[in-house]
Amino acid sequence: MSNIITVKDMCLWYGEHQALKNVNIEIPEKNITAFIGPSGCGKSTFLKTLNRMNDLIPGVKITGDIRYGGTDIFSKEVDVNNLRKEIGMVFQKPNPFPMSIYDNVAYGPRTHGITNKVELDEIVERALRDAAIWDEVKDRLKKNALGMSGGQQQRLCIARALAVQPKILLMDEPTSALDPISTSRIEELVLELKDKYTIVMVTHNMQQAVRVSDYTAFLLLGELVEFGKTDDIFSQPKDQRTEDYITGRFG
Amino acid sequence: MKALMLVSAGITAALVLFLLLYVMSQGVPDITWELLSTSPSYLTERIGILPDILNTVYIVLATLVIVLPLGVGAAIYLTEYASNKKVVGIIEYAAETLSGIPSIIYGLVGMLLFSNNMGTCLMAGALTLVIMNLPTIMRTTQESLKTVPQSYREGAFGLGAGKWRVVRTVVLPGCVDGVITGCILSVGRILGESAALLFTAGFAHTASDIISGLAAPGASLTVALYVYAKEQGEFGVAFAIAAILMILTVIINFAATLVQKYFAKRRNI
Q1: Which residues of A touch B157 (CB under 8 A)?
Q2: A93, A111, A160: best mutation site toward chain B, by most B Cβ within 10 Å?
Q3: pTM as predicted
Q4: Mean pLDDT of B182-189
Q5: Which element (helix H / strand E) includes A190?
């Protein structure tokens, strides 16, 4: 099994505040890696570094080495828009654009230069099928996406991310704003997607990490405390702090 | 105490109603087709306000054509691109102050800046009004840019869209209502402006097409009102113009409300 992302000695500062401290991790390809940890431990920050979304926040400083497929993601040769095409992202709160369902999914492909109607139709249908929402929306593709339920909106956002054919899908607590039924649908979907995509998921919910992920990383106060197979982390954690957290002693 | 407030409310309502009814009753009977559709002539002693109507339309158009791209462009730059928030804050504060100063000051500056160089003409008036309305357009656009949720921008960046594409496809459509509202408010302000135009645009009553009209001096409706009332003692005409301006203001306010309602509805689908 190969690693698609390698992070070495990564530190991150928001101005004076250091949010991540010497993080070292290798993310395995076509697996689901979950990041757990209490609020403010830096899991979302870490996730947003991988596709350089942190570039948008003023005052962020990052040191260390992050490689995607062997390439330094901060090197000058890397086109950040292309990087974000390869490493897609699904956000905590569903954020469809105020456009039609079709235009939402077609937004990415259009951004990257696809204008052919037939081709776009195909991409949109495939993405919506992959996100397990095609049957629900196929008769109302021209309707505004904001009219959908929260769970549908989140699956639409997944479809929108899939439409640019990424290699990696970053998911930032994708079910925290959803009800239990929508949550389990998203979890099922994520399990199906790992055949084709590498998924890195931040979750606040430890049960979710157990149900879904193959690997789990535990972050605490900006430090990567422990990383390993999910079964091992939850059955025999090596670090006392991990054990305290997963047994609910804090967090 | 309650009685006192009732009296205040009553006086306020009475004053507003009185003003409206007084101007309308004095002005509306004098609005005739001949008044609206002819130019004044000293030979036949005819008074017509067609040139003034045309001048007003030209000034409104010329001002908007210049102020819209400037104001909207500045707003986009300050909100979406500028990284020095301190400078942005200073500019915003300055713009807010500018929109509050008496218009006669704009007139004075416009006269020195434009009329003294290009002559007294509608264009000099329009340019003065551009300076006057720039803060309004910029601020309303900025405020509506700020209402576009950050999550839309993140979503678009996350798909690999570049800055300009994000602005064009996600941010701008979300602030159209602000631009239109700013536009309508500005039209209202231009229609009602007199002090700044007295200095810069002149008093002529000649009907002409837009190009030669902008290059020549001319009175807007408000300036014409002043001239007819103060210099010619034609109070009937002055009141007719006043009534027309009032009706236009009502229409403009109504349009602004409609636009805001329309977009508010579209936002909460």
Answers
A1: 53, 56, 84
A2: A111
A3: 0.81
A4: 89
A5: helix A180-193
Tell me the pLDDT tens digit for each residue of A23-34.
999 999 999 999
CATH number at B31-268 = 1.10.3720.10
What pLDDT shows up at residue B42? Answer: 79
User: Does the pLDDT of residue B34 top 80, yes or no?
Assistant: yes
- CB-CB: which of A53, A93, A98 is closest to B158? A53
Mean pLDDT of chain B: 90
Residue among A167, A121, A154, A135 at smallest CA distance from A28 = A167
* CA end-to-end span of chain A: 33
Could you tell me the sign of the dihedral formed by the alpha carbons of A193, A197, A198, A199, in that order? negative
What are the residue boundaries of the structural domains of chain B, listed by start? 31-268
Which of helix, strand or coil describes residue A231? Answer: helix
CA distance B153 to chain A (A): 9
Closest CA to A98 of A138, A164, A156: A156
From A85, A96, A98, residue closest to B160, measured CB to CB? A85
Q: Do A51 and B158 touch (CB under 8 A)?
A: yes
